C-alpha cells in the first residue's frame, strides 16, 4: 500500500532526526525546545503510521466479505441476490440447508399446543412416498403465537430419514398420546369459547348444551378427545357455532 509505505518512511525519518538531535542536544548545539519539536514530530509520524495500518486492515477485512463461505457443507435452497447487485452489510444472499437430520415445519393451533408439547409419539408421512411413515421428534415449539394466524410455529425432526426423503417435500404429521381406546370427533365439531375447547352435546331429548373438552391431538383429520366425553355421547358434527345452548335438534339416523 503506497500510503502505508509513505507513512513508514516518514516515521523512520522522524526517528533518525530525533536520534541526531539528541546527540546535538547533549553537546548543547541546539535548544531543548528544538529537541522537543523533533520528539513531537516522531510521535505524530508514529500515530499517522498506525492510522494507515488500521485502515489497511479494515479494508482487507471488508474485501474478505466479497467471498462467501459457509461454515459447513450443505445444500443451497434459495438464492436471494442477483449477479451485479450491490449487497448491503447483513443482507441475506443465500439460504443453506445443513446436512443431517431432516425436519418438517408446521403450525400448531392454540387448542393443541399443550398436547403437541407432551405428545408421546409423532409420525410423519410424505405425499411423494405413499405407504411409508417415519417416527419424528418435536424439536422446536414457539412460545408465542403468530399474531395473525394465532398458531404456534413448530419443527419436528424426522428420525431415520433416508436419502429418498428430499428437501421441499410436503408432509403430514400425526400426533398421539399414551392410552388405550380413545374418542374422536370431526374437526368441525370443535369450537372455542373463552380459550376453552368445547363441543355441543346432544341430550337424549334433543336439547343441545356446551360441553368443555380436553383435546389430545389430531389424527386422520379428526380431533382426539382426552376428557370431557364418553363413549356413546352424541355431539353436533358441524355448524355448532350456529346453534344456541338449549335449542332442540333432531338427530338424523344413518341408513
Short description:
Helix content is 25%, strand content 33%. The chain contains 3 helices and 14 strands.
Strand and helix map with partners:
Elements: H1 2-26, H2 32-64, E1 75-79, E2 94-97, E3 102-109, H3 113-118, E4 121-126, E5 129-141, E6 151-158, E7 171-176, E8 183-186, E9 191-193, E10 196-202, E11 208-212, E12 214-219, E13 222-227, E14 234-235
Antiparallel strand pairs: 1-2, 3-6, 4-5, 4-7, 5-6, 8-13, 9-10, 10-11, 10-14, 12-13
N-to-C series of helices and strands:
HHEEEHEEEEEEEEEEE
**Overall number of structural domains:** 4
- CATH topology-level fold name of the largest domain: Elongation Factor Tu (Ef-tu), domain 3
General shape:
elongated
Helix content: 25-40%
Q: DSSP strand (E) fraction?
A: 25-35%
CATH class of the largest domain: Mainly Beta
Arithmetic mean pLDDT? 82
Task: Show unreliable segments.
Answer: none
Largest sheet: 5 strands, antiparallel
- CATH level 4 superfamily of the largest domain: Efflux pump adaptor protein, beta barrel domain
Number of helices: 3
Oligomer: single chain
Structural class estimated from helices and strands:
alpha+beta
Tell me the distance between the termini. Answer: 92 Å
Total number of strands = 14
Lateral strand order in the biggest sheet: 3-6-5-4-7
Radius of gyration: 37 Å
Describe this structure in words.
- Helices cover 25% and strands 33% of the residues.
- A five-stranded antiparallel beta sheet has the order 3-6-5-4-7.
- α1 runs antiparallel to α2 (32-64).
- The mean pLDDT is 82.
- The protein folds into four domains: 2-64, Orthogonal Bundle (Helix Hairpins), CATH 1.10.287; 68-99, no CATH class; 102-176, Efflux pump adaptor protein, beta barrel domain (Elongation Factor Tu (Ef-tu), domain 3, Beta Barrel); 183-242, Beta Barrel (conserved putative lor/sdh protein from methanococcus maripaludis s2 fold).
- β12 and β13 form a beta hairpin.
- The chain is built from three helices and 14 strands.
- The longest helix has 33 residues, at 32-64.
- It is of the alpha+beta class and 255 residues long.
Amino acid at each position: 500500500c503506497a500510503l502505508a509505505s509513505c507513512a513508514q518512511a516518514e516515521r523512520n525519518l522522524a526517528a533518525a532526526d530525533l536520534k541526531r538531535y539528541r546527540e546535538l542536544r547533549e553537546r548543547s548545539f541546539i535548544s531543548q525546545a528544538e529537541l522537543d519539536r523533533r520528539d513531537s514530530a516522531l510521535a505524530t509520524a508514529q500515530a499517522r503510521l498506525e492510522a494507515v495500518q488500521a485502515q489497511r486492515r479494515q479494508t482487507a477485512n471488508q474485501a474478505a466479505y466479497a467471498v462467501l463461505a459457509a461454515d459447513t457443507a450443505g445444500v443451497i435452497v434459495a438464492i436471494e441476490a442477483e449477479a451485479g447487485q450491490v449487497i448491503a452489510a447483513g443482507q441475506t444472499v443465500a439460504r443453506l440447508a445443513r446436512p443431517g437430520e431432516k425436519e418438517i415445519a408446521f403450525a400448531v393451533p392454540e387448542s393443541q399446543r399443550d398436547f403437541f408439547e407432551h405428545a408421546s409419539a409423532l409420525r410423519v408421512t410424505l405425499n411423494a412416498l405413499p405407504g411409508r411413515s417415519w417416527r419424528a421428534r418435536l424439536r422446536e415449539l414457539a412460545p408465542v403465537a403468530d399474531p395473525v394466524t394465532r398458531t404456534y410455529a413448530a419443527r419436528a425432526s424426522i428420525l431415520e430419514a433416508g436419502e429418498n426423503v428430499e428437501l421441499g417435500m410436503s408432509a403430514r404429521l400425526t400426533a398421539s398420546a399414551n392410552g388405550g381406546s380413545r374418542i374422536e370427533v370431526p374437526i368441525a365439531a370443535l369450537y372455542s369459547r373463552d380459550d376453552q375447547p368445547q363441543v355441543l352435546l346432544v341430550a337424549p331429548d334433543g336439547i343441545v348444551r356446551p360441553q368443555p373438552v380436553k383435546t389430545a391431538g389430531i389424527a386422520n383429520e379428526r380431533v382426539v378427545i382426552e376428557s370431557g366425553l364418553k363413549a356413546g355421547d352424541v355431539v353436533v358434527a358441524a355448524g355448532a357455532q350456529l346453534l344456541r345452548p338449549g335449542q332442540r335438534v333432531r338427530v338424523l339416523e344413518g341408513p
